[in-house]
Amino acid sequence: MVVLTRPCAARDGIDISLIGLLSLIVVGCAPVRPGLPVPKQPQTSLHQAIFKRTDPTGQLLWQIQAEKAEVLDDVVQLQQIQGTFYHQQEPIYSLQAPYGQVHQQSNFIQLQGPLLVKDVRDRTTLRSQRLQWHPKTGQLIAQHQVLLQHPHFEIKGQRFQASTRTQQSRLSGTVTVKWLERDLQMQAQEISWFPRKETLAAHSVIPASVTMRPSANQPLTSNRWPHVQSQRVELCLPSQQLVFDEAVEMHIADSKMHIKSPRVLVSLTEDQWHSPQGIYIQYQGISARAKQGWLEPSRTLRLQHQVRVKGLPQNAQLRAQTLTWNMATQKVQARGQLIYQQLQPWVRMTGTRAMGNLLQKTLEVEGGEAVVEIVP
């Protein structure tokens, strides 16, 4: 047994500093039975070792400390690991893992968990069972029981991949996002995290879905908006805005209302939904269309520009420029170039203002004229 007190250099550009004991493994001369494979023995066993790797220009790529290390050919087996990964001489990830391997020729690191990696730039923490770090390409890849934690959200998935060049992370598989402050959840096939913009973006071949649950502190998460689906969803943390794109569908369970739109913007601070590119609504046999729509915290739906309502009592239709619809009381109010028409009995009215109640099946039009067919 030999005690070393100074650093020594290992091959392939890895420096090994020892602050403990170095045990040399000597293979004995005992006879080996013919026909049986001889397991390879480690050439060197290290305790309390520090490994460093630099690129050809001398820039530090990573540094790892292990309680125990065994060198076998070009692979270094590690136990009880702590370390730091670098990019352009700046630390980007700090890590802890019980097991790992350094592949000297191919120049990448494998870790086995449960492991923990902290991104020192965006305050995220990554947990998983397996991880690979490729310093040449700046790729960090994690698999199995992946959990990405941020002060504002948590993401669970099957696979995680981050790039130091793009500063972008992507989780794939069955991915679930939970916003901690609002008890808000989203599921998708793929979710990307952009730390520079502080934005999450979800995309799915099948619709991504957001499920909102009751919360005493956040009225947005009540059952008024329990389920939303779309092809793409984006959350911007600085502006606290959710954006649903492509085939957006909203199901409001307690009022049995179904809303479709190409795009929906949600203000989490103002508790308001806005559809700027057209909206279609179905509710208990009544359908409505408009160029724009808003859903407010008071459970009031406001439609604007080329409003068309069908399926009113007496099989009536209504056209207007604006429509306000209170879902709790079922009171409606319309304004601007009104045209009301029903078939049985046939009635046509025009005006500038209308008020009514869908539950009571009443509607009053003001500021115009009426044409009524009288059947003797």
UniProtKB/TrEMBL annotation:
A single GO molecular function term of this UniProt record: glycolipid transfer activity
PROSITE patterns: PROKAR_LIPOPROTEIN
Source species of the chain: Acaryochloris marina (strain MBIC 11017)
Name of the molecule in the record: LPS export ABC transporter periplasmic protein LptC
Family matches, as InterPro entries: LipoPS_assembly_LptC-rel, LPS_export_LptC, LptC
The keyword Membrane is assigned to this record: yes
Keywords, in A-Z order: Cell inner membrane, Cell membrane, Membrane, Transmembrane, Transmembrane helix
Cellular component aspect of the GO annotation: outer membrane-bounded periplasmic space; plasma membrane
Superkingdom classification of source: Bacteria
Lineage of the species this protein comes from: Bacteria, Bacillati, Cyanobacteriota, Cyanophyceae, Acaryochloridales
